[in-house]
UniProtKB/TrEMBL annotation:
Belongs to the peptidase M1 family. Residues 309-454 form the Peptidase M1 membrane alanine aminopeptidase domain. The keyword Zinc applies. It comes from Streptomyces kaniharaensis. This is Aminopeptidase N.
């Protein structure tokens, strides 16, 4: 009698432990990671470790179809979760089982797995989809740009939605396999190393692999007719560059700039330390967009960057981002200064190297050329607002802030900070307060006032970036 009672108590406990979850304990993941600038970007409840993106693209019609397989880990008990995506979805499977899905908001894809996901468990999510990405507008635009002979995916912060479903926020980095089938005669350009190229029945499949963590906005894809150059730097790094065959009068200036990628990476390594990735290069598609973007290992350059002759400065800027932005990434978009301030400062250093003005001279010029009532000074580089994320103040005042830091801590500590930070945070994420704490640790100086003055005050600092008396 007594014995039987004990047994039933034990089974009751077992039952309780193996079914912790009344369905009510499993909650939907949030529709955003909580970014103050972009509340719906990224998603809550899971992290992604790998994307396998397998596509087929027809340039003549802009038809894209494919399958993306996502390896994720649940960070809470999940009844459902969101992905960010813009194209039409045919099927979603989670751990092999067909999942329900629905769309909401602008770019939310809500996935309800057949079986809920326990916190800490791994999930394999397979999404089959197709669409004509250039015709799909979200918030009034598409980041998928058609060219006369193909297309390009590049944009910041938005670029992924038009070609792969993702947890679209730089706080969740993952490795990538990107494999795309295109009609014979086209090239496919993407991140990392080209690990496969195979033709069959009129179609060629290119397989690219980025084996280091990469933010979603740094994944890129281009299809079209390109001239490709390959090389290896003196330090052994593979270089892969590509130029649209249709660049017209910008073709030579583009090559005279981008072909110097290997040399410029080696030069930047002197300031920033060892290059963090296993491949490097850039591509210049025949797009109308004039911007450039630091897409990981394979920089996107709008051809207008080269409209007035060679532009090594933009190459330096985008390569500097490989350390500041790509290897060490933002945890939140409001910290964009960590990317753009340092990339612009690298251009100051390059100018100095080329005898075209020292970093101090350029910083003094920025300070002097904007009068106190200039709107320029109302943008706080350390928190510019989503609308001003890429305002010139983030770049120019942001670089002056770095010169002010240099003057405050002295050259020796400054150069140790510039090189030490990308090593300290390699392949990770960080915030401006993290950087300030690191700079204070290395320099042994309190820097709160300096950061407040240069990054967080919406008016012109009383004095320019002059050397401190004790520096
Ligand atoms: N991070 C880019 C740069 O190199 C800025 C891209 C701005 N995005 C855009 N769509 N205009 O400075
Ligand atoms: Zn930049």
């Amino acid at each position: 009698m007594r014995k039987r009672l004990i047994v039933s108590a034990a089974s009751a406990i077992t039952l309780f432990l193996t079914v912790p979850a009344s369905a009510a304990d499993f909650q939907p993941g949030a529709a955003g990671v909580g970014d103050t600038y972009y509340p719906t970007y990224g998603n809550g409840g899971y992290h992604v470790s790998h994307y396998d993106i397998r596509l087929k693209y027809q340039p003549a019609t802009d038809e894209l179809e494919g399958t993306t397989t996502i390896l994720a880990t649940a960070t809470q008990d999940l009844s459902r979760f969101n992905l960010d995506f813009a194209l039409n979805v045919q099927e979603v499977r989670v751990n092999g089982r067909v999942a329900k899905f629905a769309t909401s908001g602008e770019q939310e894809l809500e996935v309800t797995p057949a079986r809920p996901l326990a916190k800490g468990s791994q999930a394999t999510v397979v999404v089959r989809y197709k669409g004509v990405p250039s015709t799909v507008k979200k918030y009034g635009f598409t980041a998928w740009q058609r060219t006369p002979d193909g297309a390009v995916a590049a944009g910041e912060p938005e670029s992924a939605w038009w070609w792969f479903p993702s947890n679209d926020h730089p706080s969740d980095k993952a490795t990538y396999d990107i494999s795309v089938q295109v009609p014979d005669g086209n090239e496919v350009i993407s991140n990392g190393l080209l690990v496969g190229k195979r033709s069959e029945a009129g179609w060629t499949r290119f397989s690219w692999r980025e084996n280091k963590p990469q933010a979603t906005y740094l994944a890129t894809l281009a299809v079209g007719k390109f001239d490709v150059t390959t090389d290896t730097t003196p330090s052994g790094l593979p270089v892969y560059n590509a130029y649209s065959k249709d660049l017209g009068e910008n073709a030579d200036s583009a090559r005279a700039s981008v072909e110097r990628t290997g040399e410029l990476v080696d030069w930047l390594s002197g300031y920033f330390g060892e290059y963090p990735f296993s491949s490097v290069g850039g591509y210049v598609p025949n797009v109308k967009a004039g911007f450039a973007l630091e897409t990981q290992t394979r920089v996107f350059y709008g051809p207008r960057q080269f409209a007035r002759g060679a532009n090594t400065s933009v190459v330096v800027h985008e390569l500097a981002h490989q350390w500041y932005g790509d290897s060490v990434s933002l945890s939140r978009w409001s910290d964009i200064w960590l990317n753009e301030g340092f990339a612009r400062y690298a251009q100051f250093l390059w100018s100095e190297h080329e005898n075209e003005g020292t970093a101090q001279e350029l910083a003094d010029y920025v300070y002097a050329s904007h009068p106190a009532d200039d709107k320029f000074w109302t943008v706080k580089p350390g928190d510019p607002g989503a609308e001003n994320q890429f305002d010139t103040a983030v770049y120019d005042r942001g670089a002056v802030a770095i010169q002010a830091l240099r003057n405050a801590v002295g050259d020796d500590a400054f150069l140790r900070i510039l090189k030490g930070w990308p090593a300290e945070r390699r392949y990770g994420n960080a915030t401006i307060p993290d950087f300030q704490a690191y700079a204070e640790k290395i320099s042994g100086k309190p820097l709160g006032d300096l950061f407040t003055t240069w990054l967080f005050t919406p008016s012109k600092p009383a004095t320019g970036p002059v050397a401190a008396v004790d520096a």
